[in-house]
C-alpha cells in the first residue's frame, strides 16, 4: 500500500520519506515537488498567484487525482491533511504516519528554511514559535487521525520501519 507521512512543517516528512523509500526500495514522491513540477512554479509563486485557497485546491487535486502508484512513499505538505477530505482519503488509500517532534525543534529547523515556506516567511524566531504553537494546536486534530504517531527528535528510518511492522499490516 501507499505510505503517507504527515505532520507540521519542519517535522522531517520530506527528509524521512526519501530515506524510507530507499530503505524499503519503493518509489518516492514529495507532494510539494510534484505540485511544483506539474505547475511549473515554486510553492511561493503558487501562493502569490492563487492565494492559499488556490494552493489548497491544487494540493488536493495533486494528492487525490495523480494516480500515485500503489507502493509509493508520499511525503505530504504540512497543511495537506488539514484541508478538504484529504486525511480521510489518505487513511482510505494507505498507511498514514504522523511525525511529531517538539515545537522548539520545529522552530529551530524552520528558522533557516523560511524562504520556501510562504506561511512563515519573514517571521522572527519568537513569532515563528508562537505561530507553530497556535497552528499545531489547530492541526493536531487532523494529524492525530494518522494510524501511527511517532514523537522523537532524531527518529531513525529503522524506528519508522519497526513502527510499521508492529502494526502487522501489509505495506
Ligand atoms: N531528524 C532531523 N535531524 C536534523 N535535521 C532535520 C531532521 N529532519 C529534518 N531536518 C531538517 O529540517 C528541515 C525541514 O525538514 P523537511 O524534511 O523538509 O521537513 P518537512 O518536509 O516536514 O517540512 C530541513 O532542513 C531538514 O534537513
Ligand atoms: O504547512 C503548510 O501549510 C505548508 C507546508 C509546506 O510543506 P512542508 O510541510 O513539507 O514544509 C508546503 O506544502 C507549503 O508551504 C504549506
Ligand atoms: Mg516537505
UniProtKB/TrEMBL annotation:
Record's GO cellular component terms: cytosol
Keywords associated with the record: Amino-acid biosynthesis, Aromatic amino acid biosynthesis, ATP-binding, Cytoplasm, Kinase, Magnesium, Metal-binding, Nucleotide-binding, Transferase
Note on cofactor: Binds 1 Mg(2+) ion per subunit.
Places the protein is found: Cytoplasm
Record's keyword annotation contains Mitochondrion: no
Molecular functions per Gene Ontology: ATP binding; magnesium ion binding; shikimate kinase activity
Pathway(s) the chain acts in: Metabolic intermediate biosynthesis; chorismate biosynthesis; chorismate from D-erythrose 4-phosphate and phosphoenolpyruvate: step 5/7
Listed Pfam families: SKI
Record-listed ATP binding positions: 10-15, 117
Keyword Kinase belongs to the record: yes
Name of protein: Shikimate kinase
Annotated source species: Pseudopedobacter saltans (strain ATCC 51119 / DSM 12145 / JCM 21818 / CCUG 39354 / LMG 10337 / NBRC 100064 / NCIMB 13643)
